[in-house]
Automatic annotation (TrEMBL):
SUPFAM superfamilies: Ribonuclease H-like. It comes from Nicotiana tabacum. Residues 41-159 form the RNase H type-1 domain. The gene is LOC107776693. It comes from the Eukaryota. This is Uncharacterized protein LOC107776693.
Amino acid sequence: MVILQQACEYNFFVEKNPFKEHRFQVKINWNKLPTNTIKLNINGAFFKATLEAGLGGVFRNKDGDWIFRYCRSAYASSVMHCELMALHEGLNIAKHLDLCNIEIEIDSTDSILMLNENNPNLSNLILECRLLMYQLKHPILRHNFREGNEIAHLLAKEALKNFKISRCVHHARPPCFVEHQLLKEKHGFSFKLKYVSTSVCEKLAKFENENILRDYARTV
């Protein structure tokens, strides 16, 4: 009887615990765009010991075809500083190329929040990003998981790996180390399944994460 009671308690608290937060399966990938829209994926890589940073970003059309990429090495004070510099670089390029109909993806929710808050250490950079966003007619800035931001991540890592302070490097052709990933994303073969808790789903939905909006919203 005691063993049976213990088994029932285990089943209640572990397998059917009503207080246990539900987790949803989310398919994480790079999402294609509406017609005449360009997507900018950005990322930053940071090495705290030396304060070295790599900034990376890539512009692609609605089908995932390559348009333009940038890489740059820089010094940063923090991961946040690094991410905002990568965003600032991409916004500057978008303004120079007169790309108004763009969407921007980043895998840092803190960076998105920072644009709406004040930080005395990064205030000038934040203000410059806000101004560029205004000049670009307030493009959508949304969150994506790292797995859906892989090419920007690879570009940032490369800039950090080959650290050299110089002008930003621009290329209209994809470098060899991202070609395989680019083809996988373009044809929908690059994705990862992840189980995400309800609270995280609700948080990321507020940051317009398209994978969450597609898979989580469908279940609620």
